[in-house]
Structure formats: structure tokens, C-alpha cells
Write a structure and sequence with these properties.
Helices cover 25% and strands 29% of the residues. It has 4 helices and 10 strands; from the N terminus they run ββββααβββαβαββ. The chain has helices at 40-58, 72-77, 132-146, 162-170; strands at residues 6-7, 11-13, 16-22, 32-36, 88-94, 97-106, 115-123, 151-156, 174-176, 188-193. Strands 1, 2, 3, 4, 5, 6, 7, 8, 9 and 10 form a 10-stranded mixed beta sheet that branches. The protein is globular.
């Protein structure tokens, strides 16, 4: 338990929006921060993480055909691309090192209200076991709420990525009908409702 040293509110740090930060005064645990990417250095860090993600998927035992990587190199070259406000690229740092990322992009009208799509959730191999996947998901949800999104959508291949799918379920995502034209077979579509508060 971090207690008073845990900062969860959106704050400004070095001109960057920090969505979550955990600091331990005694140094017993690594310092973890998740922030919205705002400069070219952070975009490059996310690009490297997304390259790792793409390599992982391309070599996954389920087979590359179970993942949508069409145009992925162009997506990486053009970052931030579609992942701009009201969406964004979120970068997780552990003791200042790039450790994980997730991307949010605005869905085209027709999904009903303002909605974002969650993509490219990834935690680097050397940073697993710290709960970064869950922290990145929570930061993405908090960001979506902060921009008044009514829902977050995602698509995934449940059989190929069971750990991620358990996390999505634990975070409140529910299976829905198809909302996009992703050509991958055996894909599942999920939505998290974000009730308007206040």
C-alpha cells in the first residue's frame, strides 16, 4: 500500500499530462508514471514499444493471421497518426524507462455519442509483473472519462490473447456485436460504458 505517496489525480509535470504516478519515498518499489505522449521523444519511445508489440504478434504461436497487422509499419511511421485528441498515446514509465503503452483513437460517428477505441496495449517483457497492463487500462479509462467519452471499444482475438481478455473483462468490458470491419477471423468486439457523472 502506497498511502499518501500515491498520486492519482491528473496533474501537470514538466509540461506533460500525467495520468497516474506512484512514488515511494523509501525506494522499496519502482517509481511508476503514466502520461499522455506530448513530445517527439515520447512518440519515439512509444514507437519502439509498438515495434516490440508487432514483433510479438508476428511470432505469436496462434499465427500472425490472428492479428490485424495490415498497414502496421505505416501506422508506426506516422505516429501519433490517429491517436490524437480526444484520444492519445499513453506511455508507462518505470523508474524513467519506457515500459508500456496503449493507444486511444476517436471512433467515427455512428458508434453512438463520443467514443474512443482502445488499441495496442503492450507491456515490455522486462516490466511484467508490476500490474502495468491494468494501470495502463485504468489510465486509458480515466482519460476517456476526462474527455467526456461515453464508451471505449476494442477488438481482440480472445483465444490468442487470453490474459488480455481476462483483464478486459475484469475492467468491465462486455462483448458486443461487430462495430468495425477488422478482417481477422474469430475476433471479439467489446465495449465499456462510461456513465456520465456530475
Amino acid at each position: 500500500m502506497i498511502g499518501q505517496n500515491k498520486i492519482l489525480d491528473v496533474m501537470r509535470e514538466s509540461g506533460q499530462t500525467v495520468l497516474m504516478a506512484e512514488h515511494h519515498k523509501d525506494g522499496s518499489e519502482p517509481a511508476i508514471a503514466i502520461r499522455i505522449v506530448g513530445d517527439t521523444g515520447d512518440v519515439e519511445r512509444v514507437r519502439v514499444l509498438m515495434q516490440e508489440y508487432g514483433a510479438y504478434l508476428a511470432n505469436h504461436p496462434a499465427g500472425v493471421e490472428n492479428f490485424c497487422l495490415v498497414g502496421y509499419e505505416s501506422e508506426l511511421a506516422g505516429l501519433p497518426g490517429a491517436y490524437v485528441a480526444p484520444g492519445g498515446l499513453l506511455l508507462a514509465l518505470v523508474d524513467g524507462e519506457a515500459a508500456g503503452c496503449v493507444a486511444l483513437k476517436e471512433l467515427k460517428p455512428g458508434a453512438g455519442g463520443k467514443a474512443l477505441e482502445l488499441k495496442r496495449l503492450w507491456v515490455g517483457a522486462g516490466f511484467r509483473g508490476l500490474g502495468l497492463g491494468r494501470r495502463l487500462m485504468q489510465a486509458a479509462i480515466d482519460h476517456a472519462r476526462g474527455v467526456s467519452a461515453e464508451a471505449i471499444y476494442l477488438d481482440t482475438v480472445p483465444a490468442a490473447m487470453p490474459e488480455a481478455n481476462r483483464l478486459y473483462g475484469a475492467m468491465g468490458f462486455r462483448e458486443i456485436e461487430r462495430y468495425n470491419d477488422n478482417p481477422v477471423a474469430n475476433i471479439g468486439f467489446f465495449r465499456l460504458e462510461l456513465p456520465v457523472t456530475g
